[in-house]
DNA sequence: CTGAAAGCGCTAACAG
DNA sequence: CTGTTAGCGCTTTCAG
C-alpha cells in the first residue's frame, strides 16, 4: 500500500496526493476531496522513512537526559512527549546515567537517526561531545547556559524568584539560622541555585554562617549526610533550603531518625516539586519548576529552529526563554521555635 | 556524504561498501580493510532512513508503558534502552498515562514509524487497539498474558516464588494475622499477585481473614487508605503484604502518622523493589522483580521474532519466558510482638 | 493547477 | 568475490 494506490483510487497523480497530504494550498478543492476520501477508505498513512529520506526531515527531536531514574526526568519526558506529539514529531530519548562516555553514544544515535533538534537536559554537564551536533548544524536547546553555537536556544530558569520567595517565607516565620544543602558544583544549575540563595539571604539581611553551608549531590543519600552534619552542629540551623527535592527528602529521613521533628524543630524547603514531594511526610514545601513549561518551551524552540527557512534565522530574542519558578507551601515549614 | 564517497575513497563499488558494513562474510579481507579505513577517515555512518526504506527494517522497537511517572517504569526504560542499543536498535517510547484513547495514538505512532516489534508493558491493560499491531504482523511482547496472535512472546513473571518467600518469611517471624493490600483488579498482574498470596497462605496453613483483605490501587494514596482501614480494625493485622512498593510506602506513611511503629508493631512487605524502596524509613522488605531482566527478556524476544526468517518461525518454547522474583529482606519486617 | 519523472541513500538481485 | 543496476515510497522540480 503506497501513495500510488491512493492516486489510482482517487484518479489523480501521485504528485497531487503528495501535495494534498502536505496541504499545499494550490490543490484544486475537488481533487483534494477525492484524495482525502481515498486516504480514508484505504486507511492509508505515508511511509515516514521514505518521506524523511526524500525531504531530509525526520520529524524526530532528540532528548538527552542525565538520568531517567531521577524522578524529575520522567515528568519532563511526559511533557516533552505530549508537546512533541501534538506537533507531529517523534522523540528519541537517551539517558546518559551520569556516564560521560554514554554522551558520545547518545550524540551518535541522534546523528544516525538524523534528529532535527536536540534538547540537552543535563543541567550543565554538556561537554565537548555536543560539538558534533553543532557541527552538523542541528538546533540545540540548553537549560541555563550553553555554548554559543548557531541555532541554539537557552531556557533560563528563573531560580532567583522562587528561591527568594522561599527565603522570605522562612524569614517571615521567624527563622534566622537558615542553612543550605547545595548540589553538585559541576552542575551550573546547582551553582545558580546556590547563588540565588546567598543573594536572597543578603537581601533579607540574614546572616550567612559558613558552617551552615554544606555540600550535597542531589541524591537522597547526599541529603541525609548533609542533614546529619547540620544536626550535629553545636548550634544547628532552624531551617534548611535544599538544592533539590531529593536532597530535602533525604534530609527528612535523617531528621526523623534523629528524632528531630519537621517542621516543629526544623523547617525544610526543597526545589523542583517532583511528584513525590507531596507524598513524603510531612508534605514538602518546595520551589516548583514546571516540567511541563520546560518541556513545552524546549519543543517550541526546537520547532521554531527546525522550521525556520534557512535564510530567515530566528530572531535573537527567541534565543532566550525564561522559565518561571514558584514557591509551593506545604507542611515542612513552620514557625521558628527559637527566639 | 554518502556510501558513494566511501566507495570512491576505498576504490571499490558501493555494493562492496554495503556488504562490508553489513558484515557479509564473502567480502575479501583486503577490500574490507580498505573500506573500514575509508569509513573511519571520512567519519561516515550510514543513513538510517535510506537503509530502513530499502531493507524494510527500521531497527526500532516500540515500548508502550502505562505511566512513565510511576517509578517502576523509568527503571524498565533504562534496561530496555541498554539492551536495545547494544543490539543496534532504537527505541520508541510511549506512555499512555492510563488514558485508553492514548493507546490508539501510541499504536498509530508505532505503525507510522514502522517499528519491528512492540513490548506492551501495561500489565494487563491491553485492549483491542493492539489488534492493529497484530494485523500488521508486528512481533509483540506481553507481560503475564496476552492475545494469541502469531508472533508473540509472553513474559511470565514468577510471582508465586517471591510471594511465597515473603509469606514464609512472615510466618517464620511468628506472624499469623497477615493482611494483604491488593492492586487494581483490572490488572492481571494484580490478580496474579493476589492469587499467589492466597495460595501461599493456604500452603502455610495460615488463616485468611476476609477483613484483612483490602483493595488498593498501586498508588501511595491507595496504600495509605488501605493502611488506615487495616489499623482501625478491632484486631489489626501484625503484618501486611502489599501488591506493590508504592502501596507499601503509602502504608508506611499512614502507619507513621498513626504512631504505629514498623516493624515493631507491624511488618510490611512490598513488591517490585523500586529504587525508592531502599530509601524509605525503614528500608522496605520487598519482592524484587528485576527490571533489567524484564527489559532484557523483552528485547531478546523481540529480536528473535524480528530476525527470524519468515519461513522459520521461532520455536514454541521461545514464546514463553519466565521472569524470576526474589524476596529482598530489609528493615520493614520483624518478629511478631503478639503471642 | 496537474502530471511525469528524477532522484533521496541504500540494499540486493543479477551478471560477470 | 565484485560491480552494475533497479528500485524502496515519497517530494519536488519542470513542463504542460
Give a written overview of the molecule.
Two copies of one chain form a homodimer. In chain A, 42% of the residues lie in helices and 17% in strands. With 339 residues, chain A is α/β, with parallel strands linked by helices. Chain A has two domains: 3-46, lambda repressor-like DNA-binding domains (434 Repressor (Amino-terminal Domain)); 57-339, Rossmann fold (3-Layer(aba) Sandwich), CATH 3.40.50.2300. In chain A, helix 11 links the parallel strand 8 (239-242) and strand 9 (267-272). In chain A, helix 1 packs across helix 3 (29-42), helix 5 (72-86) packs across helix 12 (291-307) and helix 8 crosses helix 9. Chains A and B meet through helix 4, helix 5, strand 2, helix 6 and helix 11 of A and helix 4, helix 5, strand 2, helix 6 and helix 11 of B. The structure holds a DNA duplex (16 and 16 nucleotides). Chains A, B: GO terms for molecular function: DNA-binding transcription factor activity; transcription cis-regulatory region binding.
